[in-house]
Write a structure and sequence with these properties.
single chain, 154 residues, alpha+beta, five-stranded antiparallel sheet
Length: 154
Amino acid sequence: GSYELEIVKTDESGNTITSGTAKFNVKVNSEAQQEVTTTSGVGSYGAINIDNVSSPDTITVNETEAPTGYNKLIGELTLNITKGENASGTGYEAKGVTVTGTGSDKAEATLIGNKITLKVMPKDVEIVRDKVSEIFSGNYFSQHFLISLLIHFC
């Protein structure tokens, strides 16, 4: 049997980022590292063959490039995939997935059928930029007060 790995780049709210591309380095067990590039927020590693079920598969994921206006994930994600015999007893399948690592608070992994979907959701820059613009687009008093605060604390 086999399973697929799909990587989805999302904004902080979990919405798929459809502009730009993100790049990830992905390593499955001891195989050579491969680059996965997202198109419209989604990238695919492809099929991962299940050769044995005696130990879980380990997949490491590092984001090397984020779409313009977004931060890349800091740190490395590790997916642990448990495997077992399929219901008909004719082969193997993925049974579960967990995600750990320094960026795991900004990631979510799900297994549906034979597809593992990893959502990468680092805090995006656009929200911060929009809030700053919103603050500075207010009236003169708000701008003056904010500038005074910045001068006072800097």
